[in-house]
Every structure is written in C-alpha cells, then in structure tokens.
Specification:
The complex is a heterodimer of chains A (1202) and B (349). With 1202 residues, chain A is α+β, with helices and mostly antiparallel strands. In chain A, strands 14-33-32-31-15-27-30-29-28 form a nine-stranded mixed beta sheet, with helices on both faces. Chain A has a nine-stranded antiparallel beta sheet with strand order 17-16-26-25-24-23-22-21-20, sandwiched between helices. Classes of the chains: A alpha+beta (1202), B alpha+beta (349). Chains A and B meet through α11, α20, α29, α32 and α34 of A and α1, α2, α3, β3 and α5 of B.
C-alpha cells in the first residue's frame, strides 16, 4: 500500500503546498534580456563559455575592510566626525608658526585616540573575518571529474558545480534543486537564517530532473540555466532550464537558498546558480539600523556650546592681544616692549598690522583653547558603551535556561536610552505570551468540554472575589497533571471524552467529525521519531500544532502526509480498535488574514467528498447552512465565554459535496489558479468562497496562549517605575482586555475608556454600504468618544486632588485606530492616550503598530521602546527609539531588526530598571564630568593668557597638555562609565520609581550640565588665582630661588590633575579596587611621567627638565600650595553636594541611606514575597504622590499642545 | 517581579552548578566582575560625614595657615623701588631718552635694615610689567646652541637676534639679548658687602642646559643693543646671571636672584647701594625694584598662603557650624522619601 501511494505521488502534479503560492509575476520571456542575463552551465563549469562568464566565486567576505584598505578607509570613517576633523586641522596647522605648541604634542593624542578607535574597528572586523573564514572553509560534496562526489571547501565552489547536500547541513550557495533522496524530488528546508520562520518549507525539483539522484545518472547530465541576475528578492526567481533540447520554466520552488538548512531529507543534489555575494542572502545583508540616543544628540549640542565658548574666549584674547601689540610701536616709532623687537618681527606680532596679527592670534587661540573640547570623549564613550554591552550580554539574570539564550545588546549605541524609556509598546502574542498554544477547551455540538482553568480566568475570578471557585478549579486541574504526562501544546482535561469515552457521549458522531476536521484540516507535517514511534508535528502556526496534538491525544492520530493523502490512526468506535484511514487530499484552501479561514477538500475512505473548514467566528457563522445552525446559539455563547477567558477561538465546520458540484467547482478553481493575470488571487479567493458555504457547524475550539513567566509582575514593576505600557495586539477586544487583566496591565481600580466602532448605528450604516457615510460617521463617533474620555479624565483629576486618584486605561480597536491615527484626530487621541496609564490597541495591523509607535515618539518627544517577537513587529521595532526583540518561537526576524534581544519579556524589567538606569546614569555623569574636566583645564590656560599679554603661550609644557586627556584623566572617567552604580541591582528593582531619574532626565538636564560647566570654570579660577598668588615673586624654597615658568606650570598642572581626579572620587558612588586603581593611578602616573619626561635631555624635555626632582619636589611651599588649591577647588562642589544630599536629596540617595540605616538585613536573603510587597507599600507612600505629580505634568503638557 | 529578583543573588550560584553539566551552554559565566557585584565601598554623605569632613579640614588648615603666616612673618624683606628715583629730576620728562643715552647712570640708594637679617641674605631684582612669558619672547632661544658648540648655527628660532653679518650670535635670541644689566654695589659703613654671584642658578641648568665649552660670540654686536654684554672668555655654564635670566619667569611681575650676601645684616644698619641704572623698563612703564630678603624654611615673604589657609579653614569651620545648626533646627530623617527631588521640584535637580 505504501509503495502504491509513492507511485501515485510521483505522478501527481498537484502540490497542495504550492497551490496558493503566487507564481512570480515576471514573464519568462524576459530571460536573456537586461536583468535576466545569467547563464549557468550545469555540471560543466570548465566549459570555455562558462569560464568566459567569469562569475564571482563562492568566497564570502562580510568584513568592512581588507588588509589593503583598512588604513585609508577606517581613517576616513574616523574623520567623518566633526570634532575629529577639528583636531586633524589643528594637527596640520600646528606645523605652522601659528601653533602655540609643538606639532608632535598635538599629533600624539590624536594618533592615540584615532588609533584606539581603529584598533576597536580592527578587532570587530577581525571577528567578522574569522566567521567568514569558518563559513568559507566549510565542506560540501561536489561532483568531480571522475564522476564521484569529492569534498570541497565552500569557497572553491563555482557557478555550475553539482553539489550534494546532506541532512541538517546548510546550502553553500543558491542551488537549483535537481533531485532529492525522495523519489518525487521534494525536500524540506528550514529558512530560519533568512526570514526567521522556523517551520519547514517544501521545495520540489522539476520532474524531469528528479531522477538524477545517483552518481551514475549524473554522469551525462548537461544543462544550461538561463535566469535572472543576482537580486535581493528572497521569494522570487525567474529562469529556465535547457535540458535535452527542451526548455523548462523554473520557479522559486526549485531554488535552495544559501544559509537555509536541509531538513527531514537525507540528501539533495543541486546545481550552483548564485555564488558568494551573488546569493540572495548576501544581497539581503544590510546593517542593522543605526539609531542615536537622546543623550548623544544632546551631547552634540553641548559640544556646540563649547565651541561657542571657545570662539568667544579666543576672540576676547585676540582683541586684547591686538591692542597690546599695536601699542608696541608708538606713532613716533618708539618701541614700547623693546625686548620683543617689535620693529623686526614676523607678521604674527607686527604692531603695524595689528589687526592681521590679531586675526592670526585668533587662530592660535582656537588651537590653544582646543582643550575645552575633549578629544577623547567620543572614543571614551564608545569604549564605555561596548563594555556596558558586555555587561548586558553577560548578565546571568537575563539568561534563559530553557532556550539557552542570554540577553544580547545588538548595538551599543542605545544603552543609556534604556534608562529613559517613557512608553513601552508591546506586542502581545509571543511577547507577553509564550506563543505556544495549548488546546484547553472546546465546544462540540453545543456542549462545552475541557475543565482546565486559564490564567486569565484565575485572574478574572480573583478580580471578582470568588476564591472558593479558584480552589475548585485547582482541584479539578490537579488530576490532569497526575493522570497523564504533560504534553506540550495540550492542556485539556475532560473525563467525558478522554480515553475513547467520547463514544458514549450523546453526539458521538459529531465529536468524531469534529476531531477529524482538526486532524485533517491543516498544513502540518508529521515527523515520526524512528526509535520511539512518537510523532512530532511541524506546523506553520502553533495553533495548528495544538489542534493536531489535541486530535492525536484524543485518538485521531495524524501520522503521515504525502502530496495527495493524509493518513490517520483512528479509533473505530464500533470495534474499539485502531484503524488506519487514508483521506485523499484534493485541495487546500489556505489560510490568509483576509480570508480568516482555511479549508481542505478531501475524499474519505468511504469515497465521500468532504469540505472541512475552520475559521474565525466572524466569517464562519455567516457561511453556515440553514440546517447547519443547530448549535449556533450555544456555540456562540461558548465562544464569547472563551474569548473572555483570553482564549483564541476557531469555529469548526464541514460539509459534504456532491461529485457534480465538486467537479464544476474544481474546474473553475483550477482555471483561477492557472490564470496569469493580476486578479489571479482575487479569482482564487472568489472561487474558494463559492464552495465554502452552506457549512454545518460542529463546534468551536479554544486554545490558550499562556502568559510568559513573570509577565504580570514585570508589568507591575514597570508601571510602578512610571513607565507607560501600550499593548498593540491583533486580538479581539474582549480577549485583549482579559489578557490585560491577567498581566495586570488593567486593574480593577482603573477607569476604562473604550473607543470602538461596534455601535449599532455604525453597523446599520455599514449594512447600507455607503462607504463615505460610514467613514464620516465613524470619524465623528471616534472624535466624540475621545473627547468624552478626555473630559472624564479632566473631571477625575479635579476630584482626585481631594480624594485619592483614579487611573485610566484606554482600549481602542483596530478600526477605530485607523480613524484615530488620522492627521486630524491624532493629537487629540495622543492627548487622551498619554493621560492613561495603560493603552491597549486591539486588532491592529503591523502597519498600525508602526504608526502608533511613530505617533507616540514624535507626539510626545519622549523615548519609546517597542518590544516584539515576530515579523509583524519589525516595523514597530525599527520605528521606536529602542527596539527590543524577543528571541522566541517566531524566529529571528524581530531580533534581526532589534537593538536588544532578550529571551523573555520579564527580562525587560532588569534590562530597563537595572542596566538602563545604570547606563543612563553612567553616561550622563561621564559626559558631564568630561566637560567639567576639560573646562577646568582649558580655562586655566585662558586665565594664564591674561597674564601673558594674550600672546598664546600656554601655561604648561606641550606634552603635559597633550597627555591630559589621554593619560591623566581618561581612565577614571571610563571606570565611571563602566562600573559606577548609584544603588545595587537589587535596590534598583526594589524601588522601581528610581527609574524616573532617567525618564525625567534629571541627571542630564541643562541645569545640571551647565552646573557642571560652571563648576569647571570655578575650579579653574580657584586653581589659577590661588596658585599665582601663592607662588608670586618671592622665593619658594629655603635657598632663595624664585618661581619660574616651569615651576608654576608644574604646580598648577598638578593641581588640575589632583582636582579633577579627586572630583571624580567625590562624585562617584561606587568604589571598587578598579576605581581606586584608576583614580590614584592617574595621579601617580602624572608624577611618574614627570620624572621620566624630566630626565630626558633638555632639548626634548625643555621646561620640564628635572623640574620635579630638582625644583618642585624639594619645595615644601609647592606641596602646601597644592593642598590648599586642591581642597579649595573641591570645596564648592563638596558643599553643594553636602547641602543637596541632606536637604534636597535625590531618590537614589534616599534609597542608599535607607539601605544604610536598615543594615541588619542579610544581603542574599530571598525575602518572602508578601512581606516584601507590604514592605514596599509601607515604605513608600510616594508612588501615589508620584503618580499624582505625573498626572499633573501630563495634563500640563497636554494643555501646552492645545 | 519580586520573586525573581529576590532570589537573584542566592539563586545564581545554585543554577550555575546545574547548568555546568550542560555542554555548549551560552549561559554567561559567573564572576563578580561580569555580574557587577565587585566588593565596593559606597560612601554616602551623611550629616556626620559632612560635618566631620569640614571640621577635619578646618582643624588641619587653620594651624597650617598660622604656621605659614609665622614663617612668612619671620622673613625680613627690604624692597626698594628705584626706577623713578634713579632718573635725575631734569631727565624725568623723557625717561626713555635718558636711559638710552650714554651719560653716567650711577645712582645711590640707601636702605635701612628694619630687623636683623641672618645670612644668607638674597639680593633680587624685581621687574614689573615685563612679559618674559610672551610667546614671541619665550620661543626666541636655541637650547641646542646653548648646550653645545656643535650646534652654534642652530639659530632659526632666534630671529631677529640670530646672526650678525651671517655669523651666529651666541647666545642668540631675544631672551639673551635683553639680559638685565643693572648692577648693584652694596656697602655698609663704607665697607663693601660682598655679593656672591656663584650658585644662583639651578644646578641642572648649569650642568645640562648651558655648555662648558660654549662661549659668547658676536653678542650684543647687532645694530641694536639690548641689555648686558657677556665676557666672551667665560663659558656660558659660568655666566650665572644669564642662566638665571634665561629661565623665564611665569608672570609679568617677577624677581630674579642677583646674588647672595653671606654676612648677617643687623637691625638698624644702613646699606648704601651704588646702582648702575642701565636697564630700560621705562618704555613700557615697568617698575624696577631691588630686594634684599632672607628666607624661612618655607621660602620668601608672602602672607597670601597663610591667609588663604586660614580663610579656607575658617570657611570650613563656619560651614561645619552652619550644617550642625541646620541639622539641629531642621533635621531630616535619613531615607525619608518625602524629600524626593521631583516631588519637591519637578525637573530640577
């Protein structure tokens, strides 16, 4: 019997899987023309003609650079940054006499900084290269000259080579499938790496080539493929195969793409069509979208501020310099400062051309005060962010054991943005839920089956205060767990139909039909485990898998699928024996989101024609036959209840067909399928529509998409942190609301505002069919609903001042959303939405998701985070400021488009509240500190100028200055950026409100930035004026020696190094040995540098020659000055901090203090949950206060728009 | 998500073990470093800390200030400004012409010693409004030429004082050229006080920056004479006045060591100074002062450091008191959340 079926298979032309796949629209006649010029000589790559074509080899390189172009290209990349260009120009100009310092001292730090970045680029590229080498050296069997398959490296493949690929290995290039180990030349392919879809895809060879499946038959195989040029369209292929003097059209069905994997098939033979970079996957390779964080954008603005300061002080200096220079020769040709020889001078100091001299001086000053702009800022930030991402990747708390997936920061640009998220836009399926469907309930013939209790129901009960029933359900659920091993995708328990008991049910016939439909009407592929005989299923959607599993568990085991047949093991309820039943599969009318149903036409063993159909209630009930509505009311009631319980429901129906009717329909359907016109899809749909009617209702199924572990707690925490959460889902309104309750997005104490178009008058209008009128009425209705909602909130916020406050939740459905997103309503809608703590958009399409994201992002100007797992979330992920992909069941597409990838929704809590908060804080502090330290340093130069006639002589030796940013101050600030923690991770999570520091941007607002800048300038003034007054003209040592240029420089510079490093020590909150090492090490290094540099010959060390050893160090006066200056320079900040921390503490400081005062708590103790909860609420009356404040802020914001 | 987080620290170790068996796991390895749990000290500024810090600073600074002030007070310093007085009254209308003229510029000054000055007494000249730190001026020297005869011709940086008729000037440059040339002869009771001019320059300068075999050449032979001339027979390493001068000052008001008096000067002594007033500071209104000063263990006379120490110490003491009072008046319970910054002051810091 099996053999027979096989034979039939081979002849069959009807492939259910392809019947709805659109053929490529392009005409095959285009082959040979422009864009379709590729010619492949199969199995004949040494053919002179083939050699002439000179197609690229299969060597793949994804590196950005090659050994040859690394230097120029990476340099070019570097100098695309404005600040770096500035420094490069400065470096060049420093070779001219304009420069206030020597050229090498300017070049050195630039080289160090650029070098560091280049090394980083180099390492990254080298890693990519290693991957490439690995891929290029993979082995594949190639059909060789002596007619055997020889192992060859991937990179040596050429176009036209014949290769054999074995099970579970990747295709080395884009191949034309010739034959497979199956007789009919089919094979299964997993395309996870291409599009992220995990289900298997079927590919089939041309019949003419499917026999070429051994070395012998391939001996004389020669063919020519003419096809399209390389392109990035994964799902199209146009080509012809010239074989045996005939032409055969080729379609994507025959193409095996590189990086997809052969599954369930022992081996395949194929001809290499595209190699290396010509393959579709390589043509598709694009860089992940690059986003910049808000802080970085603000940082650019600060740099502009600094540039303005730079220009301002340079200009001031030039004016004074010009005046002083002009006076050097008086009108009577007398020399004023004769020691400068103003009579014989270069143009730079010429008193006769004072304006020109001043202009040149301006350029000099621009260089001199260039220290205001931190040269190492960009590279430091980059280093810091990379290290921060390492910490994110390494976090054990965000590692998911089951899937073996750690969190992954795919870009390091956005770390600090994670700490500023104001709104989270989340997908539901697969993100909040596991996306592993479990069959929990069904309603057959109007009788509900299934005693399981869903999480949503539990939540629902809890909400309605029905504890006793919860207990009930628990007890009824328990036996399920005991009596049978748990089956993935199946959580159904009902003794009435288990173990074949259904036979005794009143409508056993209907139950049988019901499960047959479930077992037959699907597109899953069974995968029989050879050893145990267990059957696993590969299904396109988890729902289908759940159905097949359910029918298997209830005695309708689907075990084999061929192109024409579906075979079941069935329990015969007459004989109570297992029998095999084979259904001939005639047609599959596939599921699509517009059809919302799927049907199959089969012939059963009794030779009856059946149409089995399942679909959404909204489309199915209207298709029922008059006599098929027997259980309609009960079923509808059950469906409603299931939806309330957060279940996904489908209606199961069937009908019997007459042979005549079927034949007529089949003709029409085939015609539709073979037609080559634009309306082909519409024709097929309408043909399908014709047969999918007069259905007989059997019942309905309900599958549960379980909430992921920890989701409600996570959402709770996030909303405590003041983050607004929007859920954008494709679900029905009721389902969405209930899921919302289950995951605590909605709470009983919230006021729900429902915006919907399901009102009778709109429906009535719809029935009349006047489109314009409908849309107009809808628009008005939405507008009114939004306004009503708004006034509710306004009213509530007025009351709330007196008596507690109400929070609001907005629920809107897809149809209404389409109107609400209209330009005219957008603002009002957004205004309403941001007043609500939670927003749920139901029935929204991928495009709407992206639009909503954009609206929130641009409308509020706040940071949005989108989280999702499927291909339908890609638009949303890319649109949002941060895209977080869940690397879940739906493949990698969302992850590929995301900036961060986590395995579970609950990890978002840690990602935001801990890592986000820390990174935000670190980067903000780091940037502020950077500006502080450079202003401190730069302004001492400026003050000194005032005492050097603004001549452009720096106060310090050239090399001190050039090492400032690179050696003496850079490491502590990097340590700050990488390691600083205001509070520990545990406390971050315990006090989620802390997160608001980032959302309200408290650490990086202009007041704070300018405060730091002012602190820098103040420090520089204290340092400079205290130093010069202390070290005035008098002797500074016992031996009567006086202070000269070099001593003053060293003392002042030491003060600066000490001050900025101690300032760092004062401002960080977290001292590990690393901080100590870096801070004190930097100061130590300065002295070490001074000793080493000072011992170089004086021609090189100039003013630094032995300055420390001989001159400064033995002088007690220098040290006393240093102590005075450093303490004085730090004291304003210290006093401010002391005041602020004690009288206006920030939240994290309060938490730290709390922690300190209640120390006796042993650290690693896992607190019992309820205790901690009361703990929080007892400690913090503030969430209330905070929300109040937040609400007020929101209101005022909204008002400012209107 | 309290259950998850609370067990974080405790659960980590256990789960590491369980997964250890699993091969090829992508589980991040545990280390205190990667989990950001390094042992750390987290200082917080409690009132106690603030007050004690201020107190400690003031306790250290005030005595230091007092000591510094005493040291400064111990120093006896005689400052005599002579730039104006050494111009004969008739010439004062055009001081520049006088100083550039060729007449006798001897000038007698009388100094009174107010207090006993123990040897060594340092003699300084002080110039004001003289920009030795002007970029053009500072750059105008050739270190290699000063160091070795070999590099005699390296005078590029020295323009316009680089050569005379093609012959390089040694030492070249504006700094050397403008060498200070007033001289002081000190006498007490008609007895000359010896002024030792040896050892007034830094040792490193003498030994490493100024060569023993480098002799002045063509110095002050240009069309314009700047300051002092040098004896062409003495190597630069022994021309200490030049060495001192060439170590440029940091600020426009500066002193330079002229010499040392190695006898004590008694209180009430009258010192006669016979002064050759050659140096032109008149064109740029620079003052010239003669300074005789002793030193303390700390150096010369400058009250600023001591006062600054006292001031900072005093302010810190005041702040300590102020904070204490503020606490007594308006105490804040540690960790009291009602002080949340954005509750009080939204958006501010």
């Amino acid at each position: 019997m099996r053999g027979e079926r096989r034979k039939g298979l081979r002849l069959s032309k009807l492939y259910s899987f392809v019947c709805f796949r659109p053929f490529s629209r392009d005409d095959h006649s285009q082959i040979g023309q422009r864009g379709y010029s590729r010619v492949v000589f199969c199995n004949d790559p040494d053919n002179p003609e083939a050699l002439q074509l000179n197609y690229r080899g299969n060597y793949v390189s994804t590196t950005k650079y090659t050994a040859a172009n690394f230097i120029p290209k990476s340099l070019f990349e570097q100098f695309r940054r404005v600040a770096n260009i500035y420094f490069l120009v400065v470096a060049f100009v420093s070779f001219s006499p304009l420069a206030p310092y020597t050229a090498p001292s300017v070049l050195a730090p630039l080289i160090v900084v650029i070098g560091a970045t280049m090394v980083k680029e180099g390492i990254e590229d080298w890693r990519r290269r290693k991957q490439d080498v690995e891929a290029n050296n993979r082995k594949v069997e190639v059909y060789g000259k002596n007619y055997t398959f020889v192992e060859t490296k991937w990179k040596d493949l050429r176009v036209g080579d014949l290769v054999r690929v074995h099970k579970d290995s990747y295709f080395p290039a884009d191949l034309l499938l010739l034959s497979s180990s199956y007789d009919d030349g089919i094979c299964y392919v997993e395309t996870m790496n291409l599009d992220g879809e995990t289900n298997l895809k079927l590919k089939n060879a041309l019949e003419i080539t499917s026999s070429l499946n051994d070395e012998e038959s391939l001996k004389n195989f020669r063919a020519v493929i003419k096809c399209e040029d390389p392109n990035e369209h994964l799902y199209s292929f146009v080509g012809t195969l010239n074989y045996d003097g005939k032409q055969y059209p080729l379609s994507p069905q025959q193409i095996l793409l590189r990086d997809s994997k052969l599954k369930n098939t022992d081996c395949v033979h194929g001809v290499v069509v595209f190699t290396g970079h010509d393959t579709k996957v390589m043509q598709n390779a694009t860089d992940p979208p690059s986003k910049r964080s808000k802080i970085e954008r603000k940082m650019d603005k600060i740099i502009y501020v600094l540039f303005s300061i730079l220009i301002l002080i340079a200009f001031t200096g030039s004016v004074f310099f010009g005046i002083a220079t002009r006076k050097d020769i008086s009108n009577s040709e007398k020399l004023r400062r004769w020691y400068l020889r103003p009579d014989q001078t270069t143009v730079f100091y010429d008193p006769r051309k004072a304006i020109l001299a001043a202009f040149f001086h301006f350029l000099t000053a621009l260089m001199l005060y260039g220290y205001l702009i931190p040269i190492s800022l960009y590279v430091s930030i980059e280093i810091v962010k990379v290290l921060q991402s390492v910490f994110i990747n390494q976090d054990q708390e965000m590692y998911h054991e089951e899937t073996d997936r750690p969190a992954r920061a795919r870009t390091s640009n956005l770390n600090e943005e994670l700490g500023q998220v104001d709104t989270i836009l989340s997908d539901k399926t697969g993100t909040l839920t596991c996306n592993s469907m479990e069959f929990v309930k069904c309603s057959i013939a109007g009788i509900p089956y299934g005693r399981g209790m869903t999480e949503v129901e539990t939540a629902l009960r809890k909400r309605k205060d029905m504890p006793q029933e919860i207990d009930d359900s628990m007890s009824s659920k328990d036996p399920t767990a005991k009596s049978m091993k748990s089956v993935k995708g199946f959580n159904f328990w009902d003794e009435r139909i288990f173990d074949g008991q259904w036979v005794n049910q009143p409508r056993a016939d209907i139950i049988q039909k019901f499960f047959r439909v479930l077992a037959i009407c699907h597109t899953a592929i069974p995968d029989v485990n050879g050893d145990t005989g267990e059957i696993a299923y590969e299904a396109e959607s988890p729902d289908e898998a759940a159905f097949v599993i359910a029918s298997r568990e209830l005695g309708f085991e689907f075990f084999a699928r061929t192109q024409t047949n579906i075979s079941l093991h069935e329990l015969d309820h007459m004989t109570s024996e297992n029998v095999d039943r084979v259904y001939e599969l005639l047609h599959v009318l596939e599921f699509s989101s517009s059809r919302k149903r799927m049907s199959v036409v089969v012939r059963n063993p009794e030779n009856h024609l059946l149409l089995l159909s399942k679909g959404a209630d909204s489309v199915m009930f209207e298709r029922l036959a008059k006599h098929g509505r027997q259980f309609e009311t009960e079923t509808k009631e059950h469906i409603k209840r299931y939806a309330e319980a957060g279940l996904r429901t489908l209606v199961i129906t069937y009908r019997e067909l007459d042979e005549d009717e079927y034949r007529m329909w089949e003709e029409e359907f085939k015609k539709a399928k073979t037609s080559v016109s634009a309306e082909r899809d519409a024709l097929i749909d309408s043909a399908a529509d014709k047969i999918e009617r007069d259905l007989i209702l059997l019942g309905a199924t309900a599958v549960e998409d379980k909430l992921q572990k920890g989701v409600p707690e996570c959402i709770d925490k996030l909303s405590q942190a003041g983050i607004k959460i929007w859920v954008l889902t494709g679900d029905k309104t009721e389902t969405a609301i209930n899921i919302g309750y289950a995951c605590r997005l909605l709470r009983e104490d919230m006021n729900q505002i429902l915006v919907t178009l399901d009102s009778p008058d709109i429906e009535a209008l719809e029935k009349q069919g006047a489109k314009d009128a409908v849309s107009k009425a809808s628009f008005e209705s939405i507008k009114k609903q939004i306004r009503d909602g708004m006034s509710q909130i306004t009213a509530a916020s007025e009351i709330s001042a007196k008596e507690g406050l109400k929070t609001f939740a907005l629920v809107i459905d897809g149809k209404s959303l389409a109107f609400a997103l209209d330009k005219k309503l957008e603002k009002e809608f957004l205004g309403l939405a941001i007043c609500c703590n939670s927003v749920i958009c139901c029935r929204s399409s991928p495009k709407q998701k992206a639009l909503v994201t954009r609206m929130v992002k641009t409308g509020t100007g706040r940071t949005t985070l989108a989280i999702g797992d499927g291909a339908n979330d890609v638009g949303m992920l890319q649109e949002a400021d941060i895209g977080v992909g869940i690397s879940g069941a739906e493949g990698m597409q969302a992850v590929m488009a995301s900036d961060f990838a986590i395995a579970q929704f609950r990890f978002l809590e840690r990602l935001l509240l801990v890592h986000g908060h820390w990174c935000y804080r670190r980067i903000a502090m780091m940037i502020c500190y950077f500006f502080y330290k450079n202003l401190t340093f730069g302004f001492t130069l400026f003050w000194y100028e005032a005492f050097a006639s603004f001549s452009g002589k720096p106060a310090y030796n050239d090399w001190y200055m050039s090492c400032y940013n690179v050696f003496f101050t850079s490491l502590p600030v990097i340590a700050l950026g990488v390691f600083d923690q205001d509070v520990s991770a545990r406390l971050c999570l315990k006090y989620p409100l802390l997160y608001q520091e980032g959302v309200q941007n408290i650490l990086f607002n202009w007041a704070r930035i300018l405060g730091w800048m002012a602190n820098g300038i103040l420090s520089s003034m204290i340092i400079f004026f205290l130093t010069i007054n202390s070290m005035a003209a008098q002797a500074f040592r016992r031996d009567g020696r006086v202070v000269d240029y070099s001593v003053l420089g060293v003392t002042m510079y030491s003060s600066v190094v000490w001050t900025v490093n101690c300032q760092m020590a004062l401002s960080i909150n977290y001292f590990t040995w690393i901080q100590h090492l870096f801070i004190w090490g930097s100061i130590g290094f300065w002295y070490l540098f001074l000793v080493v540099y000072g011992s170089l010959p004086p021609t090189f060390s100039t003013t630094a020659f032995r300055v420390l050893v001989e001159t400064s160090a033995p002088s007690l006066y220098c040290w006393l000055t240093l102590v005075l200056v450093v303490v004085s320079a730090l004291s304003p900040y210290f006093s401010y901090r002391a005041f602020q921390i004690n009288f206006r503490p920030m939240y994290h400081e309060v938490i730290v203090e709390r922690r300190r005062t209640e120390r006796p708590l042993p650290l690693p103790l896992p607190l019992p949950l309820p205790q901690e909860e009361t703990d929080i609420s007892g400690e913090l009356p503030t969430p209330v206060e905070f929300t109040l404040h937040h609400l007020k802020a929101n209101l005022s914001r909204r008002n400012s728009w209107n | 998500m309290s259950s998850n987080t609370a067990s974080s620290s405790a659960g980590a170790a256990g789960s590491t073990d369980s997964s250890a068996a699993r091969r090829n796991s992508k589980r991040p390895k545990y280390s205190r470093f990667t989990q950001q749990e390094l042992p750390a000290c987290k200082p917080i500024l409690t009132p106690c800390w603030v007050i004690s810090t201020f107190l400690i600073v003031s306790v250290i600074f005030i005595p230091l200030g007092v000591i510094s002030l005493f040291a400064s007070q111990d120093v006896v310093e005689i400052v005599d400004r002579y730039d104006n007085d050494c111009i004969p009254v008739p010439a004062r209308a055009n001081k520049v012409a006088y100083i550039q003229g060729t007449g006798d510029k001897t000038c007698n000054r009388t100094l009174r010693v107010p207090k006993r000055m123990k040897q060594p007494v340092y003699v300084y000249y002080q110039l004001e409004n003289f920009y030795q730190n002007h970029r053009r001026y500072v750059k105008s020297r050739s270190d290699s030429q000063l160091r070795s005869q070999k590099y005699e011709n390296q005078v590029d940086a020295c323009k316009p004082e680089d050569d005379v008729g093609g012959q390089p000037i040694v030492p070249c440059g504006l700094i050397a050229w403008s060498l200070f040339n007033d001289t002081y002869d000190l006498s007490r009771n008609n007895q000359r006080i010896a002024v030792n001019k040896k050892g007034i320059a830094w040792k490193s300068d003498r030994e490493h920056k100024f060569g023993k075999n480098v002799f002045p050449k063509n110095f002050q032979k240009g069309n314009l004479t700047g300051g002092a001339s040098l004896d062409p027979n003495i190597p630069l390493s022994e021309q200490e006045d030049l060495i001192v001068w060439m170590r440029t000052a940091a600020l426009p008001t500066f002193r330079k060591l002229y010499g040392k008096i190695e006898t004590d000067l008694e209180a009430g002594d009258t010192i006669h100074v016979t002064l050759q007033n050659f140096y032109n500071t008149y064109s740029f209104n620079g003052k010239k002062k003669l300074v005789l000063s002793t030193t303390s263990w700390l150096g010369g006379k400058n009250d600023f450091l001591g006062i600054a120490y006292l001031a900072v110490g005093g302010i810190c003491f005041f702040l300590a008191i102020a904070f204490t009072i503020m606490y007594l008046v308006k105490p804040r319970r540690l960790g009291d959340p009602s002080y949340l910054s954005w509750n009080r002051n939204p958006g501010g810091r």
